[in-house]
Amino acid sequence: MGELLDISTPHCEIRRSGPVVTVTMSRPEARNALSTDMLVGLADAFAYIDAEPGVRAGVLTGAGGVFCAGADLKAMGEPSADPRVRRRAGEIENYHWKGLLREARPGKPLVSAVEGYAVAGGTELIVGTDIRIAAEGATLGLFEARRGLFPMGGSAIRVPRQIPYTHAMEALLTGRSYTAREAADIGLVTRVVPDGRALEAARATAEEIAACGPLAVQAILRVHRETEGLPEAAALEISDRIGWEVMASADAREGALAFREKRAARFTGE
């Protein structure tokens, strides 16, 4: 799984293997419910993925055959027993929102690997990722309305933008649960794999992304995020400005040369 990074916390294991960083929510005794230790680790992990030039994609998963059962309000309100986590909680502005991918989403793709329960805040985390691989036995759902709560991770905005409106409203307003197959049918997840294989499939997808030109990949994400809701003409202006920078890059020249020479491209991000 790669090198364990020192930004890991008691509830969040962060490992790097070449250009891919795997972030594992690790509180299996509580079905990986969110805690201060977990949210600080997630916030630092996503910032690391964004800032490190050699990192090209991230994978988000959970330990013990579970993704994340949502918020543990008691554990989120208590200070960590780990001195470094306490310090980072004071240093990272809005670490809760950063850890939930509501704020400061990385400019590089995130692939989620979903096994078991991924409900409430767990589904909100999935909604913040770009590609979503779910195991056959996974359960997803935005349960907040059913509990008289509100999906504070941004799903009331993001889900209707990501999947058809009526499906989004059913998910948000009924708080019902979804099997992996149902979630795939409405476009909430990308595809379904056999139980126990989600992480393997997500890492393979992340490696595919890492083999592409990093400038191109990051530009595609940036254009999508910067043009949401804009009229087509205004969106195309932004797309052209960002796209022509990629087309003029050394990576673009290397991609064309590698194609002609029938070899794998050696992208440098320049």
From TrEMBL:
InterPro entries given in the database record: ClpP/crotonase-like_dom_sf (IPR029045), Enoyl-CoA_hyd/isom_CS (IPR018376), Enoyl-CoA_hydra/iso (IPR001753), Enoyl-CoA_hydra_C (IPR014748)
* Presence of keyword Glycoprotein: no
Recorded hits in PANTHER family, A to Z, give:
(7AS)-7A-METHYL-1,5-DIOXO-2,3,5,6,7,7A-HEXAHYDRO-1H-INDENE-CARBOXYL-COA HYDROLASE, ENOYL-COA HYDRATASE-RELATED
Q: Which UniProt keywords apply?
A: Lipid metabolism, Lyase
Coiled coil location: none
**Membership in a protein family:** Belongs to the enoyl-CoA hydratase/isomerase family.
Which Pfam families does the annotation name?
ECH_1
- Gene3D superfamilies linked to this entry: 2-enoyl-CoA Hydratase, Chain A, domain 1, Lyase 2-enoyl-coa Hydratase, Chain A, domain 2
Matching CDD domains: crotonase-like
Name under which the protein is recorded: Crotonase/enoyl-CoA hydratase family protein
Native species: Nocardiopsis mangrovi
